[in-house]
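FAQ

Q: What does a record look like?
A: Structure on top, sequence underneath. For example:
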């Protein structure tokens, strides 16, 4: 039996690639040691001599943590979209069919996680999915992903283009969700620009939820101003099918387009707020403190209470009888 270190360097959800590697090693009798986050990048007193060390990061801004991890474990195998590595689980373990090892999940995580499809129909310049996964292809069924009783029928789908797989495949997955009584979070978002009536009606027929499985929510994106017409055409298609704009959270990429201005950013933001959509800015250039300030103003919901021109993320104001609100300058 060998000691194996598995390290998730960032991300809120369990890292599926590391979970699969852990399952592969455990099936071979190895002892798995799990670590997470910034502290997980450090070697701790009393750790054994490992036969193999794995690390994974999904965000580019985690580069300092990845660097620290590599200093601590020079022989580590490091991968993920947040690194410069193109290494895959299949290259290490082959086309393994083991279920993910949920011992690697954070405490209290009771959902199941996986893909029904891989790849994407689009080729956005800022996205790594088309290069890594290619065109859409079928992966797993909902029952393949669910870890079974006694776990709740809560499914985190990591699909990048659920409706990009063949229609007969996504229709079968929708039927599984309906008949099985599953609640599904389309965690990576849906391509609202490509939503047609059939897809909208399919979504309206199932229990879609946010990542906490509490609220009705679908995730999507509006990254380019030029997509305004097609974006809202998709929003309208969803609304006609019974999915109101208030159920949508839209990621809005900021800091990527060289021609971007604050006027263009606020045009997208204001248009979504007017329709009841919840915007979520995604800052491409982490050096842009002004954009990170804008992101915080939006994601905290303080845009409903204070104009951006008056927002100060470093200050807090007390409102009698209410919780302290971060970011409102006194």
């Amino acid at each position: 039996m060998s000691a194996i270190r598995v390290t998730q360097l960032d991300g809120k959800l369990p890292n599926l690639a590391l979970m699969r590697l852990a399952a592969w090693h455990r099936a071979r009798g190895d002892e798995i040691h799990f670590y997470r986050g910034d502290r997980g990048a450090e070697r701790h007193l009393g750790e054994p001599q490992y036969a193999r060390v794995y690390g994974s990061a999904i965000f580019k801004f985690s580069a300092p943590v990845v660097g620290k991890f590599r200093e601590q474990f020079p022989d580590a195998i490091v991968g993920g979209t947040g690194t410069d590595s193109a290494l895959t689980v299949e290259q290490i373990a082959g086309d393994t069919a083991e279920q993910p090892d949920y011992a690697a999940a954070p405490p209290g995580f009771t959902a199941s996680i996986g893909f029904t499809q891989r790849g994407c129909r689009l080729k956005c310049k800022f996205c790594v999915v088309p290069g890594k996964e290619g065109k859409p292809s079928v992966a797993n069924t909902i029952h393949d992903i669910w870890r079974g009783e006694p776990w709740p029928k809560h499914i985190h789908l990591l699909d990048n283009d659920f409706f990009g797989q063949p229609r007969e495949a996504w229709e079968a997955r929708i039927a599984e969700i309906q008949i099985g009584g599953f609640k599904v979070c389309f965690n990576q978002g849906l391509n609202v620009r490509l939503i047609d009536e059939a897809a909208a009606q399919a979504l309206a027929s199932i229990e879609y939820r946010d990542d906490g499985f509490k609220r009705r929510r679908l995730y999507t994106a509006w990254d380019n101003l030029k997509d305004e017409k097609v974006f809202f055409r998709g929003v309208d298609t969803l609304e006609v099918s019974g999915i109101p704009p208030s159920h949508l959270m839209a990621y809005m990429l900021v800091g990527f387009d060289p021609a971007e201005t604050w006027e263009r950013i606020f045009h997208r933001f204001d248009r979504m707020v007017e329709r009841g959509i919840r915007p979520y800015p995604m800052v491409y250039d982490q050096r842009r403190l002004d954009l990170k300030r804008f992101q915080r103003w939006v994601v905290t919901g303080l845009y409903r209470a204070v104009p951006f021109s008056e927002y100060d993320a470093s200050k807090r104001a007390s409102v009698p009888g209410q919780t302290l609100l971060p970011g409102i300058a006194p």
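Q: Is there anything notable about this one?
A: The first strand starts at residue 3 and ends at 8.
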